Amino acid sequence: MPLTDIEIAHSVRPKPITEIAAGLGIAENDLEPYGRYKAKIPLKYIDPEKINRSHLILVTAMTPTPAGEGKTTVSVGLNDGLNRIGKKAVVVLREPSLGPVFGIKGGAAGGGYAQVIPMEDINLHFTGDFSAVEKANNLLSALIDNHMHHGNSLGIDPRSVLWKRVIDMNDRSLRSVVVGLGGKANGMPREEGFHITAASEIMAILCLARDLADLKQRIANILVGFDFDGNPVFAKDLKAQDAMTILLKDAIKPNLVQSLEHNPAIIHGGPFANIAQGTNSIIATKTGLSLADYVVTEAGFGADLGAEKFFDIKAVYGDLRPEAVVLVATVRALKYHGEGEDLEAVRRGMDNLEKHIENIRKFGLEPVVAINKFSSDTREELDFVQRYLKERGVDSAVAEGWAKGGEGMTELAAKVVEKIRENGGKFRPLYDWDLPVMEKIDIIAKEIYGAARVVYTRKAQTAIRRFEQLGFGGLPVVMAKTQKSLSDNATLRGRPEGFTVNVREVEINTGAGFIIPILGKMMRMPGLPKVPASERMHIDADGRIDGLS
User: Fold this and answer.
1) In angstroms, how far is the first alpha carbon of the chain from the final one?
2) Judging by beta carbons within 10 Å of its beta carbon (0-12, 13-18, 19+), is residue 380 exposed, middle or buried?
3) Is the N end or the C end of the chain the one with fewer CB atoms within 10 Å?
4) Cβ distance 115 to 11 under 8 Å?
């Protein structure tokens, strides 16, 4: 029986994190260790001149199956492969959320022989960054309710409060709640709700901030609601920004760990791509570019979500220039979108992959397709996919990082290095931020998703008008959309055409700096499945964990 991910992780003894740091040129005295195998890197290692000489590689994917297609596994394996062919490379990833860890997808530390370690620590509490985000978010919630309880001198209309509490767990029971019950001493009763921590604006701010001062300014600019006259109320009006930033003073620093092959990995921030921007922090990416010549990073879910937001938001805010894109595909996903199990289903499923290839080209980049190999894949299926892509002028490589680690990723690594020589300097965002909000939404829906039209509820139209009147119309757009389809309908597989995108409501994150159209039935607090992953987990008397994936 093959070893599980956690058994493979346990089979490799990590090197002391000081050794990994030394390989990147980080002095031991500068590290902030969290045990022997994890550490935080100070922000002073960000070097703008070195960033301009380094190469940024984005790993994204076709529309995934519910279990995901292995972007993190490919990212970690590609980093190992680049190091094997003599490149100084580092992988920069997001931190896992406990929601998926205990839900359907499991953790986000890679898989097989392409993992980052210590796997349990990374997938669980890690260095406490998610906890810090949660506490800073909920401090603002407490300050809002406390202000209204003690006289409400700002005149905050409790019906207008936009700010939600958060918790790092999938818990559908918390989507809509009432707070302040139990009498006058317990505050003002009002409707409230929870988002998952990964969807918190604080998480988005942490991942877009340039430094501690920028973090504080963005927190100050958070729109928390409106007063009784309809005027906006911000976090700075509650004098919340300093205390909230204090809670995040360590969380802003990126975390250093290692792969199974002892290559460096920087892990920081964790917004989801279906309900937030879906990429790790600008600080982490710039730290990687400052310390290595090649940086491999990933964006969540399919290229219609994480990659689009990486290109149109993170790259613009961070002044980043991606030079190569790896588009992960699997035979499993091709069959899923082809709605069958034979070679003809694989062919039908190629429609979905082709749409993502077209989308990447709209940003001026030419992707390399990584066919993430599963043990169930046949040679005939893999050959068919590669032949199909070659006939259409698309480079590809079979990615065998799960089974072989870096050894199984050297072909992909070499093709990515070659693609950088071809792609360098050609990246461009899809839209101009200064366009009207509805025009930006239309561009994404039609160009990236393939929609025929976009319709808005009256509530969504009213919100857009209000945000534009307040001067926020020039912000970019983070679409909240199902990851299961190119459309906003999770049941439409493959490459749907002629469909309508439905904008149900529109939220805004003025601190992070983007507008959030919520499409279809999307919500920012997931629920657990009927049989959650937590049921497979065990811990023995010595504290050894099994069943974590």
Assistant:
1) 16
2) exposed
3) N
4) no
* pTM of the full structure: 0.95
Long-range contacts, stretch 392-395, CB < 8 angstroms, 24+ apart:
392/354, 392/357, 394/357, 394/367, 394/369, 395/366, 395/368, 395/369, 395/419
CA dist 549 and 543 (Å) reads: 17
- 10-residue stretch averages of pLDDT, the chain, 549 residues long: 86 96 96 97 97 97 92 97 98 92 80 94 93 98 96 96 95 93 90 94 97 98 97 98 98 98 97 90 98 97 97 97 97 96 96 98 96 94 97 97 97 97 87 98 98 98 97 97 96 96 96 96 85 88 85
Catalytic residue ranges: 71, 73, 94, 105, 273, 301, 374, 402
Residue 142: CB partners within 8 Å, gap ≥ 6?
none
Q: List C-alpha distances in Å: 390 to 385, 397, 513, 536.
A: 9, 11, 40, 41
Q: For residue 98, give the amino acid letter.
A: L
Q: Strand locations in 377-499, DSSP E?
A: 395-399, 453-456
Domains of the chain: 5-127+251-423 (3.40.50.300), 130-242 (3.30.1510.10), 437-519 (3.10.410.10)
